[in-house]
Each structure stands twice: as structure tokens, then as C-alpha cells.
Specification:
Blueprint (H helix, E strand, L loop, with lengths): L1 H27 L9 E7 L2 E5 L15 E4 L2 E8 L6 E3 L6 E4 L3 E5 L5 E4 L5 E2 L5 E2 L16 E6 L4 E6 L6 E5 L1 E4 L7 E4 L2 E3 L8 E4 L7 E4 L1 E3 L5 H35 L1
Antiparallel strand pairs: 1-4, 2-3, 5-19, 6-18, 7-8, 7-14, 9-10, 11-12, 12-13, 14-17, 15-16
Helix pairs in contact: 1-2
């Protein structure tokens, strides 16, 4: 039984150590544009049923509660929390935030479609609108040379004022993608996510349509990490880790006592 207690406490140490890593990643990305915090979820490991509830205790009676011993805990998964981050006004025409559900689409180097909430875009020397990492938007939008002003509408329509022309020119429209289960998107790093079996297929279209969020130009969505909440979780995790560590020490002392007495 004591050896079993050591094993159970060890699983608790592993689980709390992993949860602390999730919290550390949240805090590290507190200033990352469009970052969504993660939450660690736990599950119990298999139980050993020495006596099953309802099993016959004798010829006439049954056990009411039984005897089941747990074998510990494991990390079930990390859920991404999709709440809206605070919008920060920048005044840069190519800084674009999504208000509500949805993701920008970008073309990755291997041709795969990536999804991001980070709207800090810029343009290349050829005029292509790209992410901070140089990935072009889908559909690709070119800003002509000699453009004197850019306007991005709430539906993603990009218009430009060209030198020597009095009329506004429509350059294209930024399309956004939504998912049935956005938490199922697979994170890659570099503020990018990709489609997975869990996320479902993307529903692509104009911003503000079919439940997708609208766009706000001249602003960026900040991280949705709440530092106070993360610090509270960190203290709680630290205490849980200490308790499991003390359990190992207490069990070790019990084993030493048995070895000395027998």
C-alpha cells in the first residue's frame, strides 16, 4: 500500500509540474498579439476494485460502497480559451484586429493554410500584405506603388487612394475563417494554427458574415491572459506540488519505520 502511495504521489508531481509549464507559457505570452491562454485539464487514472459496490458480502447481504483504490492523476489535455483579447489602438492602417470569432488566413511556405489572430501586417517591397513573419494573406492583396492612403472596412474590404487619382480604388477583401470547434486547431508557434480533425472544416467568407467577427483597422488584439488569474493558479499549483512532495516524504518515513521494526 505504501509503494502504491508513492506511485500515486509521483503522478501528482508530474501532473502539477506540467500544469506549471502551461501557466508559464501563458505568462510568457502575456504581450503576444492574438494569443489565447491555455488551461490544463486532468483526469483520474484507472481504479483498482478490490470490492465492487453491490457485490455479495454473504449469502444475504451486499456491499453498499465497495473498496476502490485510485492509481493517481494524469493530464487529460490543454484547452485553448477563445475569449476576446483587449483591443489596443495603434493608428497603423495595416494593424487589423478581429472583433469576435474568426481567423486570418495565411499561406505557409509548404502551401498549407495557416490561421492566426495576430493582425500586425506589413507590406513587402512588391506591395504584398504579409504577416510579421512574411507569410502572405489569403487571398493575396497587393498595394500598388504610389498609394497615399489605405482604408480597411469592417467587412475586410481594402481600398486605397492612389497618387494622381481622385477616385478610391478597391484592392480586395480580407476573408476570415471560422470553425465549429476552434479550440481543436493545432498550434504550431509563430502565432499560427492549422486545421485538424477536431476543429472541423473552415467556414470562409467576409468578416461579419455567418457569425464571423468584424474587423477593426488601426488596432491589434492583445493576449487574453489575465496576469492575476495566472498568478493565483501558479500559487495553487505550487501548493499542490508541495503536498504531493510531502506525501512522498511521509510514505518514505513509513517504509523506513517498517524496515526498522521488522
Amino acid at each position: 500500500m505504501s509503494n502504491g502511495a508513492l506511485q500515486v504521489a509521483r503522478t501528482g508531481l508530474d501532473a502539477q509540474n506540467t500544469k506549471m509549464r502551461v501557466i508559464a507559457n501563458n505568462l510568457a505570452n502575456v504581450n503576444t498579439n492574438g494569443f489565447k491562454r491555455q488551461r490544463a485539464s486532468f483526469e483520474t487514472l484507472a481504479y483498482q476494485h478490490n470490492i465492487t459496490p453491490g457485490a455479495p458480502a454473504d449469502a444475504q447481504n451486499q456491499y453498499a460502497i465497495g473498496l476502490s483504490l485510485g492509481t493517481g492523476v494524469a493530464l487529460q489535455g490543454t484547452a485553448r480559451i477563445e475569449t476576446q483579447g483587449a483591443l489596443q489602438t495603434t493608428g497603423n492602417a495595416l494593424d487589423i484586429a478581429i472583433e469576435g470569432p474568426g481567423y486570418f488566413q495565411v499561406e505557409m511556405p509548404d502551401g498549407q493554410v495557416g490561421y492566426t489572430r495576430a493582425g500586425n501586417f506589413s507590406r513587402t517591397s512588391e506591395g504584398t500584405i504579409v504577416t510579421a513573419g512574411g507569410l502572405p494573406l489569403i487571398p493575396e492583396i497587393q498595394i500598388p506603388e504610389g498609394t497615399t492612403g489605405i482604408t480597411v472596412g469592417s467587412d475586410g474590404t481594402i481600398s486605397a487612394a492612389l497618387a494622381g487619382e481622385t477616385e478610391i480604388t478597391i484592392l480586395g477583401q480580407i476573408e476570415t475563417a471560422s470553425f465549429v470547434n476552434p479550440a481543436g486547431l493545432k498550434p504550431l508557434g509563430d502565432n499560427l494554427l492549422i486545421e485538424s480533425e477536431a476543429s472541423g472544416d473552415p467556414q470562409v467568407g467576409g468578416a461579419g458574415e455567418e457569425g464571423r467577427g468584424t474587423l477593426r483597422a488601426g488596432a491589434l488584439e492583445g493576449s487574453n491572459v489575465n496576469i492575476v488569474e495566472e498568478l493565483v493558479d501558479m500559487i495553487e499549483t505550487q501548493r499542490a506540488y508541495e503536498v504531493n512532495s510531502k506525501m512522498i516524504s511521509a510514505t518514505d518515513e513509513m517504509l523506513q519505520f517498517v524496515n526498522q521494526q521488522l
